[in-house]
Automatic annotation (TrEMBL):
This is Probable chemoreceptor glutamine deamidase CheD. It comes from the Bacteria. One of its GO terms (biological process) is chemotaxis. Belongs to the CheD family. Keywords: Chemotaxis, Hydrolase. It catalyses: L-glutaminyl-[protein] + H2O = L-glutamyl-[protein] + NH4(+). One of its GO terms (molecular function) is protein-glutamine glutaminase activity. Its EC number is 3.5.1.44. InterPro entries: CheD-like_sf (IPR038592), Chemorcpt_Glu_NH3ase_CheD (IPR005659), Cytotoxic_necrot_fac-like_cat (IPR011324). It is an enzyme of class 3 (hydrolase). Probably deamidates glutamine residues to glutamate on methyl-accepting chemotaxis receptors (MCPs), playing an important role in chemotaxis. The keyword Hydrolase applies. Pfam families: CheD.
Amino acid sequence: MSLVDPDQLSSGPLAVTDVGPGDVAVNGGADTVLTTLLGSCVSVCLLDRPRRIGGLNHFLLPRRHDPSDHSARYGDTAMARLMAEMTRAGAEESDLIAKIFGGADILKPPRSGSIGQANIAFARQILNEWNIPIHAEDTGGTRARRIFLVPRTGSVSVHLIRTTTDPHASVRGAAVRERPS
């Protein structure tokens, strides 16, 4: 099984960078794949396609409660850090688009008002406040997902993870389709 949609990749080998919980990664121009595994956590991918710069974060909770805690485990810090690293890499804020992933309700039984739903709502809210359009989204549900972002092209592949409680579930891998502009 291909981990990244082969039609979206260059002909050469790609370096893979795993982005863990509370991490942020940005890469511009190089043949790199950024990947992360998400359950109730959310990852926001920001892309500046004209400059071929992209990055993502991986946050666990929407907001920090301790103002002295600057960990990117929290959405407010993770988004600020991602934006800072994108602009430091040369991205123009006016050319940014976003893609949102994760926020699954992986606890059984699913609950309303879950951490995943709060993370999704936070990501949508801050992107709206920053006037960054959301071009693709694969959020919610009850299954974890691994995402693969190729910053140079902006392509993202999502693989839903088979759960141990659902032996009939299969792994789905697909390139994410963008919303029509």
